[in-house]
Design brief:
The complex is a heterodimer of chains A (67) and B (200). Chain A has one helix and seven strands; from the N terminus they run βββαββββ. In chain A, the strands form two sheets. A five-stranded mixed beta sheet of chain A has the order 2-1-7-4-5, with no helix packed on it. In chain A, a hairpin with a 2-residue loop joins strand 1 and strand 2. The termini of chain A are far apart. In chain A, 22% of the residues are buried. Chain B is an alpha/beta fold. Chain B is built from six helices and seven strands. The longest helix of chain B has 19 residues. Chain B has a seven-stranded mixed beta sheet with strand order 3-2-1-4-5-7-6, with helices on both faces. In chain B, strand 1, helix 2 and strand 2 form a beta-alpha-beta unit. Chain B is globular, with a radius of gyration of 16 Å. Classes of the chains: A mainly beta (67), B alpha/beta (200). At the A-B interface, strand 4 and strand 7 of A face helix 2, helix 5 and strand 7 of B.
Amino acid sequence: MKIMLNNRIESFEEDVLTFEELFLKKKFSFRMLVTKLNGNLVKKEDRSITQIKDGDDVVVLHLVSGG
Amino acid sequence: MHLEDIKKLLKSKTVGIAGCGGLGSNCAVALARVGVGKLILADFDVIIESNLNRQYFFYDQIGQKKVFALAYNLHKINPLINVAAFDVKLGPGEIVTVFEGCDLIVEAFDLAEMKEMIIETVTTTFPVTPLIVGNGMAGFGMSNQLRVEKVSETLFVCGDGLNEISPDQPPLAPRVGIVSNMQANLALQLLLGNSNQDNL
């Protein structure tokens, strides 16, 4: 499948990935994240069940402390 | 756009600023100088000496509540603007009450978990209100890493997205100042209805 990940096109062998699986694939190990699927917020507790499919627009925003 | 047109438009706008530390105080000063009609400030913290390396306060304000000291400083800069100051620790409930009706909200917290919380709250409760987040500005140098990113139609992120504060990498005036003013600059762009939002 091909998805938009943070405004960039990315291809994966899988047809479907959950957010948790996507993090493993991409080796994302961030602690604080905001995740969105097609513009809608995906809550932390839903990341292991929410499925990403071909053509989806995915946002994974890594937040760091400071301000 | 002529200065008079800019002033007239901004006078009718309300901006919420969540946090009055390094990002919030400097961003608020920029927005007060250009004449945003109303600023809603919220913070629970007290000024300590180490804040003065980057936050818009003065030595004789140490010990004061940031939110009230900032309101005072903003009025000294521009007495014509309306400032509402809330001495409150912002959680989801308070964010909704304090910032309801804002034309846009600036996230100016220090902790990543608070940034996450306000993004979730604003995205769900105020889905059409733009939110400008500061993310990654610790240390010094590396100016070219600081950028503005449009995450979605209403969510924007300013910073390097990378450099977290730590004992080896403290927050310092120049980078915090740059990012807070990137937030203010983007706020102006959105408030003044710049038709080309992609031109960040």
